[in-house]
Amino acid sequence: MRTCPKCKTQTLAPLAEDRVTDPDTVPPSRCTSCRGVWLPHGAVEQHVVPPSLDLEPAAPSADELPGFCPGCRGILVRARVEAAHPFHLDRCPACAGVWFDAGEWAAVASTEWLTHLDDLWDPAWKRRARAQQAQKRHLQEIERALGAETLDRVRAAIAALRNHPRRSLGLSYLIEELRSPR
């Protein structure tokens, strides 16, 4: 058994004994204590763990502990996964293995995150994702303030003016009409 990144004890056991080939490589493994799952980089892409393996989430306190790679013992780097219930994944910067606290593999395996998991640690991708989330929240606030029907009409006006050769005239007219008292 290897040392669990979160428990810091020798409780990390291979998921399948027949897959253990290289003694220097940590195979897909699960902690017998905290139920977290370690997946080497290639195993994440191959989806070797059934999503039903860990349906219960870990205790929140366990997710806040820093972890160490069970292979190279480097400090794992965290990335936030935006979901209905956000959580953090931990990855080794050297070998790119990923630690999933209990319940996190099932949460990731059932979403589109699995196909671009590496992006979670890419600063440029994270900036784009935050900008998209901010835009989405902004539009939701506008819809909440105006109502869906009015927002649809505003969008229709935008669509009509967007490529019109005299759109500045149309925009000026809208502003003028909105400023004048009725």
Please write out the topology.
Blueprint: E1 12-14, E2 29-31, E3 37-39, H1 41-46, H2 60-63, E4 77-81, E5 87-91, E6 98-100, H3 104-109, H4 123-146, H5 148-162, H6 167-179
Antiparallel strand pairs: 1-2, 2-3, 3-6, 4-5, 5-6
Low-confidence stretches: none
Strands across the major sheet, in which order? Answer: 1-2-3-6-5-4
How would you describe the shape?
elongated
Average residue pLDDT: 85
Number of domains: 2
Structural class: alpha+beta
For the sheet with most strands, the description reads: 6 strands, antiparallel
Say how many strands there are.
Answer: 6
Share of helix, binned: 25-40%
Strand content: 5-15%
Radius of gyration: 24 Å
| Quaternary organization | single chain
Number of helices: 6
| First-residue to last-residue Cα separation | 77 Å
Give the helices and strands as they follow along the chain. Answer: EEEHHEEEHHHH
Features:
182 residues, alpha+beta, six-stranded antiparallel sheet, 6 helices, 12% strand
Structure report:
This protein has helices at 41-46, 60-63, 104-109, 123-146, 148-162, 167-179; strands spanning 12-14, 29-31, 37-39, 77-81, 87-91, 98-100. The chain is of the alpha+beta class. It folds into two domains: 12-122, no CATH class; 128-179, no CATH class. Strands 1-2-3-6-5-4 form a six-stranded antiparallel β-sheet.
